[in-house]
Amino acid sequence: MLRRVSAIDIGSNAIRMMIADISGHPSPTIQVVKRFRAAVRLGHDVFTEGIITPATMDIAKATFRRYAETNKELNVEVCRAVATSACREAKNRQDFVDEIFKNSHIPIEVIDGTEEGRLIHLAVRKELNLDNKRSMLIDIGGGSVEVTFSDGDKMTATKSFPMGTVRILENLTKRQLNEAHLNIIMGEFLGDLGEHIYKNCDHDPVDFAIGTGGNLECLGKLKVQLLNAAPHSFLTLSELNAIIEKLKTFKVKERVEVLKLRPDRADVIVPAAMLVQTIMRQAEVQKILIPGVGLRDGIAWSMLTK
User: Fold this and answer.
1) How confident is the model at residue 305 (pLDDT cuts 50, 70, 90)?
2) Domain assignment of residue 305, yes or no
3) Helix (H/G/I), strand (E/B), else coil: 143
4) Does a structural domain hold residue 295?
5) 3-class DSSP state for residue 45?
6) Other C-beta atoms lying within 10 Å of the C-beta of residue 31
7) What's the maximum distance between 2 C-alpha atoms anywhere in the chain?
């Protein structure tokens, strides 16, 4: 029997919703009905002022009212909404959760990095066959990066790092630096990141990396667009290096006008690409798969298992 659910991911760069039909019999399936995205950059407020400002709160409330109406129109039975890095750190996060519920009757769970990693891993293992493989999952968000290790389809370690793309941009702005100085910012996180990677893959190397998040899907498409290479479902490290060099030749405005990137993707795509590059180099992996699933898919799967 099919149940219609909606999964909402309240990230640092956007608020995304996916509506899907789920079934546990005869075998578990999820059929995506529709995906939505609202460019509400909670991270801009939180990483500069420590709170979600009234103006952004109003945009988020309007987004959730719209999502609640959509749930009603499309006969959604259950909705699960989770908030990640920006909301976790906002001093007024409880006000945000209360206001959204008052306006939309959608309850929000603020989850930690471990639960975020678990949900993303759940989505990935439903999409890819991980049997007899050691893999490293990289989720690039606006506020944080989750790096998860897996033996087969069993998650063995996950850690969240406060080095998401929006946070990096705000860090650059605050220090009056620009994209050319990204290596300085990256370098400040390398100690913790390197330790996590070394601990989990030095004695038992990973077979491949897996990348999730909108920026990784965008990098897959840019491989086709900029390098004239297919398919968009994976990147080699050398392809990623080439994409970064080409992207650096475009100003943010040109990425919007020439490459047709959304404005809230155009300014974070180089930090995202360099984060992936850094992690792949540290782990000495040459290939990253891009399965096209993410946190929303994991949330939907979690509703099926419940």
Assistant:
1) low
2) no
3) coil
4) no
5) helix
6) 11
7) 57
For residue 47, count other CB atoms closer than 10 A to its CB: 26
The range of the structural domain enclosing residue 148 comes to: 129-289
d(C-alpha 224, C-alpha 246), whole Å: 13
The candidate with the shortest Cα–Cα distance to 6, out of 112, 105, 92, 153, is 105
What DSSP state is assigned to residue 251?
Answer: -
Give the pLDDT of residue 265.
95
66-98 confidence digits (pLDDT tens):
999 999 999 999 999 999 999 999 999 999 999
In this prediction, residues 88-117 reach a mean pLDDT of 96
Q: Are residues 149 and 210 in the same domain?
A: yes
Q: What residues contact residue 49 under an 8 Å CB cut-off, 6+ apart?
A: none
Considering the chain, what percentage of its residues have pLDDT values greater than 90?
90
> What pLDDT, in 10s, does the model give residues 215-249?
999 999 999 999 999 999 999 999 999 999 999 99
| Confidence at residue 202, expressed as pLDDT on a 0 to 100 scale | 76
Cα–Cα distance, 174 to 15 (Å, whole number):
25
Same domain, 103 and 135: no
Residue 5, class by beta-carbon neighbours within 10 Å (0-12 exposed, 13-18 middle, 19+ buried)? buried
DSSP 8-state assignment for residue 66: H
In a domain, 118, yes or no: no
Kind and range of the H or E run holding 193: helix 190-201
